[in-house]
Design a protein that fits this description.
Number of strands: 0
Largest sheet: none
Distance between the termini: 147 Å
CATH topology: Penicillin binding protein transpeptidase fold
Order of helices and strands: HHHHHHHHHHHHH
CATH superfamily: Biosynthetic peptidoglycan transglycosylase-like
Helix content: 40-55%
CATH architecture: Orthogonal Bundle
Number of domains: 1
């Protein structure tokens, strides 16, 4: 039989006895309060709930407002960096590209080579308005280049989409005079710099005159005077709205939009330009409808007869 000794002592059998809890002086019985050893364990804090282990607290997330400001700041830095690089690149182009002071001499040389009169007759308002409406709607306010179009084309090259279009009349004239009609990426960069130089060196009336003197209208007609007399038998000053619109529509595809060999294409271009004239307020809807009511055979009835004077 095992004998238990006083608390903390060893009995005869050599077994250690459990220490008795100290009495609770506030208890009437003098006994120590009962502790649930099973649930809490000896020397451990009681678990908050059965079967769960407390997790370490998560690090607080930064406020969304702070993240938004950080993203905005990085975007602003990137945009400013790109703008600075663009300014530096443009400055380099302005230095390495030739001067545009000889533009009129180049126009004259091309007219002589194409057996066209130089200078040609003054550009009539109807053709000028038709050309601007379809080719360069910001012609009277831009500094030689359309910044929105340049950004769009640049983004197209960066992304590999190769977006075309957006060349101002200044850029088109630079293409005709300085880059031999080529449109590679390097040629277009040169055309942008030369367009600014043309803007700085010539009035808009002079630029329209040079453009009208050298642009090709198909069917071996170079310059507005040859095209007006060749297709319609009238001087440029006597062009009707539908005739002026048809010629303005041809400058992007003169061989494909020739009204004598491709009448359907020429008619489509005429409709497009008249629509642009109405959209920009140069013609009313009624005037645009009246212009398109003239059949194509009537417009070119005097084709090939030339101008009498």
């Amino acid at each position: 039989m095992t004998m238990w000794g006083p608390a903390g002592e060893t009995g005869p059998a050599g077994d250690s006895t459990l220490p008795l809890p100290a009495a609770d002086p506030s208890s009437g019985t003098g006994r120590a309060p009962f502790t649930d050893v099973v649930s809490s364990g000896r020397g451990q804090a009681p678990a908050t709930s059965y079967g769960r282990i407390p997790r370490a607290p998560r690090a607080p997330r930064p406020p969304r407002r702070r993240l938004g400001r950080k993203l905005l700041w990085r975007t602003a830095v990137a945009v400013l960096t790109l703008a600075l690089l663009g300014v530096v690149a443009f400055g380099g182009l302005m230095v390495v590209t030739p001067s545009a002071d000889n533009a009129q001499q180049l126009v004259q040389a091309q007219d002589v080579a194409h057996h066209a009169a130089y200078p040609g007759p003054p550009v009539p308002a109807r053709f000028a308005e038709s050309l601007v409406a379809t080719e360069d709607k910001r012609f009277y306010s831009e500094p030689g280049i359309d910044l929105y179009a340049v950004a769009r084309v640049a983004a197209g090259y960066v992304t590999g989409h190769g977006i075309e279009g957006g060349a101002t009349l200044y850029q088109q004239l630079a293409k005709l005079l300085y880059t031999h009609g080529q449109s590679t990426a390097s040629d277009e960069a040169v055309q942008i710099a030369l367009a600014v130089k043309l803007y700085l060196g010539y009035s808009r009336a002079q630029l329209l005159q040079m453009y009208a003197d050298v642009v090709y209208f198909g069917n071996n007609y170079y310059g507005l005077a040859d095209a007006s007399c060749g297709y319609f038998g009238v001087q440029p000053a006597d062009l009707s709205w539908p005739q002026a619109a048809m010629l303005a529509g041809m400058v992007q595809g003169p061989s494909l939009d020739d009204p004598l060999t491709h009448p359907a294409n020429a008619r489509a271009r005429e409709v497009h330009v008249v629509g642009r004239l109405v959209a920009t307020g140069k013609l009313t809807a009624a005037q645009g409808k009246a212009a398109l009511a003239v059949p194509l055979p009537t417009l070119v009835a005097e084709a090939g007869q030339g101008c009498s004077s």
